[in-house]
Amino acid sequence: MLRTASRPPAELRRFDPQRVLIDAWDIGKDVHMHYMRTLAGEVLMPPHKVSSLAEGYRTTREQIRAHLLSGQYDLGIFGHEPTGIYHQSLSHHLATDFHAHLTGALAPSSVTVGSTPPWSKKPDSAPPNAAANQTRSTSLPSPNFWPRAKATRTKPQSG
After folding, report:
1. Out of 22, 26, 88, 126, which could bridge 33 as a Cys pair, Cβ 3.0 to 4.6 Å?
2. For the chain, what are the domain ranges?
3. Distance between CA 22 and CA 76 in Å, rounded?
4. Which listed CATH number (2.40.50, 1.10.10, 3.40.960, 3.30.420) goes with 15-119?
5. Nearest-angstrom CA–CA distance, 106 and 114
């Protein structure tokens, strides 16, 4: 995640800082923390709690979608902590819902999703499918969220 006081890497300096949306997540089992700002440091949505259930994601997805569709941003960057198992579902849904790259190259009119900023990786550590992640998306897809199946417990039948 970019710190407000740090200098943006070269890949980001080619964009107007007011036109770069940064969407950050701190993943938890029951509750996530969510925060949105511009690269210039303007807070768009202060840190707030989001339910880790499907409804919490749907609400937040629509807030993100509204910002991206506003036409005010040339680039969207999503970041989240890479620890634990709870980030996998969120990462999958962000990539699916926003046609995002998984730590792909930064490009105008694209959205980058990744737990590690792509500019912090060594050139030889690019993901094997990096070339496939270079596609650009100029519009957002229709909502595509598959809620987790509800786990049910059954009592063992006695013989």
Report:
1. 26
2. 15-119
3. 6
4. 3.30.420
5. 11
Structure tokens at 65: 């979608």
**Tokens 């300096």 belong to residue:** 13
Q: What is the DSSP string of 104-148?
A: ----TTEEEEESS-GGGS-GGG--TTGGGGG---SSPPPP---PP
Q: Alpha-carbon distance 22 to 3, whole Å? A: 11
Residue 75 pairs in a beta bridge with: 20, 110
Amino acid in the structure at residue 150: K
**Cβ of 39: how many Cβ atoms within 10 Å?**
21
Q: What is the pLDDT along the chain (159 residues), one digit of tens a residue?
A: 444 445 667 777 788 999 999 999 888 888 999 999 999 999 999 999 999 898 999 999 999 999 989 999 988 888 887 666 777 788 788 888 887 654 433 333 334 444 333 433 444 443 333 333 333 333 333 333 333 333 333 344 454
Region of residue 57 (phi > 0: left; psi between -120 and 50: alpha; otherwise: beta): alpha
